[in-house]
Amino acid sequence: MQIYDELIARGLLAQVTDEDEIRDLVNNGKATFYIGFDCTADSLTAGHFMALTLMKRMQMAGNKPIALIGGGTTMIGDPSGRTDMRKMLTREEIDHNAECFKRQMERFIEFGEGKAMMLNNADWLLNLNYVELLREVGACFSVNNMLRAECYKQRMEKGLSFLEFNYMIMQSYDFYHMFQKYGCNMQFGGDDQWSNMLGGTELIRRKLGKDAYAMTITLLTDSQGKKMGKTAGNAVWLDPNKTSPFDFYQYWRNVDDADVLKCIRMLTFLPLEQIDEMDSWEGSKLNEAKEILAYELTSMVHGEEEAKKAQEGARAVFSTGSSEHMPTSELSAEDFTDDKIDIVTLLVKAELAKTRNEGRRAVEQGGVSVDGEKITDSKYAVEKAAFGEDGIVLKKGKKNFKKICVK
Asked: What global pTM score does this model have?
């Protein structure tokens, strides 16, 4: 199976400008394509997975990726899918975030001479003269068409600032610039970027009389249509200091039954034949599929050793493995009163409850256990001696747990 057909079979493609031309380019390794990453944080997230794995697949098929760091566009802020303006970052913050992105991308993409390139659009956008830019590209954009663009719809409800209105022009200019300087003939992006991407292909056509192509990637959503990559309202980060390898593993281990095979097909590099065999899996076999998904993605981001530790720690919760690699919290002697610590304090110290009220409710609702024994009395206290040398396992709900040790 050629790469274009594989992308379709994995459910990765949403929209394309010229299917026959794009199919020919990518199948024959003639595509020099870019995906943009605005530096709004100091780490990539699970939401970037689709883009990163797509770049890797395309590079493996002989195509040349350009990872475009948005040092310039981040100073404007992408309005796509937003109801409010993004936080304005300083140049120093953006540069720091860009360096963090580079280190994480190198786990997926091979950079170097004749391989993938990493560029920063600050190198050309920040030096543009405003009047010269207007004269060069301003006549190529219809304000009427821009106002109808999907990327501005949500912002129009509260008021689209002129700052954000320029984002489409900046992104289009990126494509125009890289087409001329680096031979970049294709742009990939999330499905919500379609209008911006068409702006780039149209600018190249009008200014240079040449064809360039755009292809959007399916957004990673769950069976309810919500974007995946967040847990309890927080992003799932690729930085182990922001989301531990264990928590990263657990996020994918706990996806809904309806989503696991879709995620395996879209995000892993397992052969399609092997994935197709899983289509008939049900019940406990779906849990096995979730373990495969979690292990493959954790190994990709954090390495095989961390993936094994995370897997062992997760299995320990269900008494099928060692608790050695389970996430751990430590208590000190000062945390005990008369050599005891009450269960609510323990939940808060272990960061399994944000407040005492939340911890108390969890206990009274029967959602807390200590070493497998359910605790329903919010005044229950654990003896210091019970921790021993190996600690105890504190669990809240089905998926949240910690090994608690005493220093």
From this structure: 0.77
